[in-house]
Amino acid sequence: MAGQKSNEAWDAWLRRLKKAVDAGYYRTESAEGEQTGFPWQGHTCGDCPFWLHDVCTVYQVARPANAHTCRYFDRPHREQGRARLYRRRWELLRSD
Question: What is the spatial distance between Cα 12 and Cα 14, in angstroms, rounded to a whole number?
Answer without folding.
Answer: 5
